[in-house]
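Let's do one together. I've listed all components of the complex below, 1013 residues spread over two lines.
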Amino acid sequence: MSLDHENNGALHEKLIEEVLSQYPDKAAKRRKKHLSVATHRDEIGEAGKVLSECDVKSNIKSIPGVMTIRGCAYAGSKGVVWGPVKDMVHISHGPVGCGQYSWSQRRNYYTGMTGIDTFVTMQFTSDFQEKDIVFGGDKKLEQVIDEVEELFPLNKGITVQSECPIGLIGDDIEAVSRKKAKEHDKTIVPVRCEGFRGVSQSLGHHIANDAIRDWVFDKKEVEFEPSPYDVNVIGDYNIGGDAWASRILLEEVGLRVVGNWSGDATLAEIERAPKAKLNLIHCYRSMNYICRHMEEKYGIAWMEYNFFGPSQIEASLRKIAKHFGPEIEDKTEAVIAKYRPLVDAVIAKYRPRLEGKTVMLYVGGLRPRHVITAYEDLGMEIVGTGYEFGHNDDYQRTGHYVKKGTLIYDDVTGYELEKFIEGIRPDLVGSGIKEKYPVQKMGIPFRQMHSWDYSGPYHGYDGFAIFARDMDLAINNPVWDLYDAPWKKKAVPLAAMAAE
Amino acid sequence: MPQSAEKVLDHAPLFREPEYRQMLAAKKLNFECPHPDQVVADQREFTKTWEYREKNLAREALVVNPAKACQPLGAVFAAAGFERTMSFVHGSQGCVAYYRSHLSRHFKEPASAVSSSMTEDAAVFGGLKNMVDGLANTYTLYDPKMIAVSTTCMAEVIGDDLHGFIENAKNEGSVPRDFDVPFAHTPAFVGSHIDGYDGMMEGVLEHFWDGKERTEAAGTINIIPGFDGFCVGNNREVRHLLNLMGVSYTFIQDASDQFDTPSDGEFRMYDGGTKIEDVKAALNAEATLSLQHYNTRHTLNYCAEVGQATASFHYPLGVQATDEFLMKVSAISGKEIPEAIRLERGRLIDAMADSQSWLHGKKYAIYGDPDFVYAITRFIMETGGEPIHCLATNGTAAWEAEMKELLASSPFGEDAQVWAGKDLWAMRSLLFTEPVDLLIGNSYGKYLERDTGTPLIRLTFPIFDRHHHHRFPLMGYQGGLRVLTTILDKIFDKLDRETIEPGVTDYSYDLTR
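Okay, and this is what the predicted structure of the assembly comes out as:
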């Protein structure tokens, strides 16, 4: 099959119909808006037609009881945006669970001496007890901050990541933060990311972005010698080292990465961000807010880019270089040329093993669209994709990536995803830990596309080689052929029946 | 350029290549505004001192690296041990994503649970509507036999009344009137995951037993295992022993199949678990035995209230703990402990005798849930080892007293200290100031291993970074063999690592040990 393939839209329409028929009416009506089949670019804009290639309702409340895969605002703030800032102590403020379950789980790599000047893979909590709920937790928070200062004096600042009860019992964490910041002469950031706010992780990202604006920017004199090539990398959480595999390229083309948000970041990198010349944004969903703010207030332009797979890396590098002019553009071409043999060798090795293999994705942030071309660089085809917590502007951006007939599912439920996968029987599914084992039980290869399944990096040229290797080892492992006991008759998959 | 298609380097080797090391050093120097190296080194040394330890142990409010989770995790685990049961957690939805991930990362298995997805409006108006819609959706989509409802702290803080809500939902037809919806209030700000387990177990039993006539079936026994990341191996081992004895028993809550489904092309959302009919019939048992006392305090009280004899154990592992468990079962059931079990016991003793010289006098730090710490401490002393630090973040004063009594019962317990309510950052100070040979705990202990150099043995939930350990038992005599072998492997591997330098330690690198 060529890359101009069309997906089996008819099958996908039928699958949507089938899953919806299983819901109670009220839920079916609500879920219907989240599921669709991508139309062709040319068909868009016709009277009464959809607005984008994959138009679904998004960023609205999940339905109770259907097994949404989404997380919460706390996960968006502590887990995603703030947690990776390495020289700050992030207090999970409230009961013990939230901090415990998110402890060391996002693989935000960093350098430093953990527990001494660096604190990412630690779980700091105020461990609320009943009395804290009844009498309020502000006094306790004050004491927690004092104890952090005493035991971890090299921290550069503290954030207070609110868990559900904080907003419900009326605590004033802002007042505590102000008071303690003055007392200890430290940056202390209260974040109102209680898990019940909003409909997913997404509002937590936004709240965390706002907290940077309100509690970090313009609070200190920042001494910094600027250069014309200063950029911030925004929305790269350095999962498995992604940001490092990106930084090495940006430095090679002659740029100076003065801040990386927020993987391997220090508070200093965040404070100086407004002095950069350009914001390069990878995960648009989680950090576009602060980029828009920096554009408005400090006049810093921002640009989206994509460092998954050679096609997008090249296009992105050229786009970035264009912003800086001929000198950087020349260096960029040299860098692209330098890595070409690696890319060619990786594709020569892996493409024949992966050509024509079909993939279903269900991830968060940017990946449901950003990784599509990386798969296509290896000859693979995306047959379905969707976002846990995307907004309308994410789906608009996705239209450019997907082929006609691609199944689109927003805030997919456990039931839907299982039925879609069963019906389509793709060669690979890329999603999260909760989805991994059900899919593998079905005999379908799987890669976690949040944590890179404990591998990575996947960004940049170095990362692409790893990505290709990992997709190959997932799909071409001999275990998938051992599922059926030889004395048992094999069942015919649904997709094969539909094709007949 | 370090990367190549022939030999693809992922993160572990890639970032140790010179290109990346130089880049990261330059990043630090130019952009991170770090503390001077000497300041960092000094602080690091300071954290190893008694002075730091005193400050560390004096903490009253801040908790760092605790070894406990919150109540609903225990409730979700408990529900997974019943036939076709879906956990329904009432409150914010992010919590459920966390419980599912946490369980999946340990078991390497699917973990299903749903949320009532309460948001800001529900915080104001209460979550009744979420319960009504949610139960209907769960019932229709996931075809459960039972829905077990627990709560996140959000629902608890706003005071949602589960009993009333479930009644309302039934009245509105969300699920049939006679459909089983047991529930437990599981506030995260009280106790820990083991209390959530207790709450859900009590909720399930009350649901099926309240108001029912009990006709005692003499000699029959209920077994409640408690929250156990090794349930897959352990429950099967306990069954093996009870089957050998020919006891009539019911496991109430058994997640061993749910968290160990085969890969054969079919995803089983539900597998195994205690049958609803069996839970009902278990009311008539003569006795209910809990394998983990601190997981079942309320549940066992309830069992006693309905007229059952009760007894509890501390994770029966090792020789004497298994002896006691079997003798209790024998006393209640009237069944003899058969020769086959005596032989199993003898094999464990044999192994301990064979290896005693390597174990005698070894010093240990042990942490985990209260019953587990008790069990391991006891077994370590049976091997001639010396527990030095016994820590349970969710340990109570009663646990501390029981531990001290246990330690006082053996000369090997003389130097031990019990740390109830302390966390793993406290353990770090303990290991620096009063070092031990081996640390027994879970995956979180790897940071202690890195900081203090104490070899870590992973024997309790959660184990994220090693695979399949939970498929093998720790309980019973055969479980004891497994624990023994694991400890010995760690000791021998360490000794080999320390004597492996060619031309330097060609001695001591012995072929036979």
